[in-house]
Specification:
Blueprint lengths: L9 H7 L16 H16 L10 E9 L2 E8 L7 E8 L6 E7 L21 H11 L4 H7 L3 E5 L16 H4 L10 H24 L4 H17 L4 E11 L1 H12 L5 E5 L5 H8 L18 H6 L6 E6 L7 H17 L6 E6 L7 H15 L2
Parallel strand pairs: 4-5, 4-6, 6-7, 7-8, 8-9
Antiparallel strand pairs: 1-2, 2-3, 3-5
Helix pairs in contact: 7-8
């Protein structure tokens, strides 16, 4: 008997998934790539049900500093809901541009107390973030590193991480008991908060659906605001914009890269498999933030990113990543390769597999940076 995460029910439901899905470019009856993109992207946006965030908010510069060859600005903007979004803008010291821009998307890692600090560095580093960067990024703050190489990099806190996290003081006592909002120095309190926030994801996801939206829809709406802000910077060339990130950042790359063609080059790290893999094997290893009701009938997960075809796209995977099944990561690569081949742009897609667990280490970063350079500089 084949074991699945939903027991004997798994094979029946997996067999119901059309392959290729009904809006897949891989279908024999789909011959017009431009018409396919328009129809499939329209359906994606319908399924995401993004909230309307109105006009681009005004941005406040709250602090400026210099660190290790970079001019750094602390930015803040207020969306129609929740606490203000905090972000860092990093650029080579003295740069005036126009330079290519990168929207750098931080990971999830079961740690909602932190956001942008997971992939940036300035001055004294929080010990938990030093550990985080050592474990996942080869000890490097990758947003800083790519900024040093001639990019303007914007790193916002995602919903609901860092400055955008849910405050315990704002939820009913029956949901958090005696827990209190921690401060940076309270290591045990941060761990307790992160455990609470992980369990709270079921509440958040249900509530977002009851509010007529989806978690990926909220991500996409907020990431588009950040993209607006990056593109409007005077030192940025809005025709040379990339995005990328590991894990949760890779997931946001899938949706943003697939939905918005201002992203001229995308690098998805540690978040590429198939809906079938999630259904049968790995839904328990993933956050509620990934899923969109009904969409798997119409587009497989890699095909969401494939909506950007023929724009350049790179996918980086780790062979021993416990979040995915290797055979399904390989199948996702085959799907994207087929999409790009059918669009007559096979050279615009690359996928690499590396030995090791879930990570975006120095070798992977170097490959990603070279891909950005090829398409946003050369």
């Amino acid at each position: 008997m084949t074991h699945t995460v939903i027991g004997a029910y798994g094979p029946w439901f997996a067999d119901r998934l059309p392959d290729p899905p009904v809006l897949s470019l891989r279908r024999d009856d789909v011959t017009d790539v431009a018409a396919w993109k328009e129809a499939a992207r329209t359906r994606l946006l319908e399924r995401l049900a993004m909230p309307d965030l109105g006009a681009t908010p005004s941005v406040t510069v709250t602090q400026t500093c210099y660190h290790d060859g970079l001019d750094i600005e602390h930015l803040s903007w207020q969306l129609p809901y929740g606490p203000p979004t905090q972000a860092l803008l990093l650029k080579p010291a003295g740069a005036s541009g126009p330079l290519p821009g990168i929207l750098a998307l931080h990971d999830h890692a079961g740690n909602k107390y932190f956001g942008l600090r997971k992939i940036t560095r300035e001055g004294d580093q929080h010990p938990l973030m030093a550990d985080h960067q050592r474990d996942y990024y080869g000890g490097r703050a990758w947003a800083n590193e790519i900024a040093k190489q001639g990019y303007v990099v914007l790193v916002p806190d995602a919903f609901p991480f860092g400055s955008r996290r849910v405050r315990l003081a704002d939820v009913p006592a029956e949901l958090c008991g005696a827990l209190a909002d921690p401060q940076d120095h309270d290591i045990a309190g941060i761990a307790a908060y992160n455990a609470w926030a992980g369990n709270h994801e079921t509440v958040m996801s249900k509530s977002l659906i009851c509010g007529g939206t989806t978690w990926p829809g909220v991500f996409l709406a907020e990431d588009r605001v950040a993209l607006d802000i990056l593109c409007a910077r005077p030192e940025v060339d809005p025709e040379r914009i990339g995005c990328g990130g590991l894990s949760g950042g890779g997931m946001r790359t899938v949706y943003l890269g697939g939905a918005d063609e201002r992203i001229r080059c995308a690098v998805c790290v540690g978040l590429m498999t198939t809906w079938r893999d999630c259904l049968l094997n790995k839904s328990y290893t993933h956050t509620w933030m990934l899923y969109v009701p009904l969409l798997p009938n119409e587009l497989d997960l890699p095909e969401i990113l494939g909506l950007r075809v023929p724009l350049p796209t790179m996918v980086l995977n780790n062979r021993q990543d416990r979040l995915f099944t290797l055979s399904e990561m390989e199948r996702a690569d085959e799907i994207l390769a087929q999409v790009y081949a059918k669009a007559e742009a096979p050279e615009h897609y690359r996928c690499h597999f590396y030995d090791g667990p879930h990570k975006f280490d120095l070798e992977m970063q170097d490959d990603a940076f070279a891909w950005f350079d090829r398409w946003l500089k050369e």
